[in-house]
């Protein structure tokens, strides 16, 4: 393994990506609660304030609306702010700034104003956290025109998608699957990455397509491995981006397999999977051998930690959907 290729946890891959951005562009600044001296509650920004100073890695007050508002002002003055929302459920005080100002400024200015702001949001469950620390609000942002919304599922994508998000002249909501922070994978820091919003087939198969993103990609890969032991071949597509969505890659997969199951942690009701299901039904009507099925969280508030394993989609619920799809 060369120096350019390292096996890194996802959190460390993000740290290395942020470090590279700070080194490359003096206009990149990091902001958020406890991102400096503490290095973030998940240590994603560990060591960056020490190496780049308090003017580049800024510990902010506990005021999400103010953090995002300040980032908008900095972007208007030519900076590229990268903002951390400490936990998914903390983003809502800043929701108005994001959807009313950040998302609309480019259109409001008839294209003359660009807002290259990245908002990092650790999201999802699986870590035994208390209330407001395990939400999956991605569909709320994907619904808003003017925002790019992405979510890596592995260390390599985390590294390169963060680079691409920071370089984007449009605002990017960057959802980080917090229960995958410690999962390791190889990262080639000299690779040529694919497009930020391109989906990727991460396992080829023949009978059913599983489409997922973020924390659920690993679950789908585990489901495909389990199904293979029973002689069922599943293809797994990592969507990677939720706004825009690469429907073409999913369509080509479904044209081969004839069946699609969309999986995400967020509630099924009006979730991102609904849009994928509708579009693929329109595009692949004559290829589908079964209705597009969805697997996700229940339409309830996220439960206390001791019940989250019942709430979160797991191997059995994915395989049950596969069986239902194959039964048609």
UniProtKB/TrEMBL annotation:
Keywords: Oxidoreductase, Thiamine pyrophosphate. GO terms for molecular function: magnesium ion binding; oxidoreductase activity. Residues 8-183 form the Transketolase-like pyrimidine-binding domain. SUPFAM superfamilies: Thiamin diphosphate-binding fold (THDP-binding) (SSF52518), TK C-terminal domain-like (SSF52922). Its cofactor is thiamine diphosphate. It holds the Pfam family Transketolase_C. PANTHER family: PYRUVATE DEHYDROGENASE E1 COMPONENT BETA SUBUNIT, PYRUVATE DEHYDROGENASE E1 COMPONENT SUBUNIT BETA. This is 2-oxoisovalerate dehydrogenase subunit beta. It comes from Streptomyces sulfonofaciens.
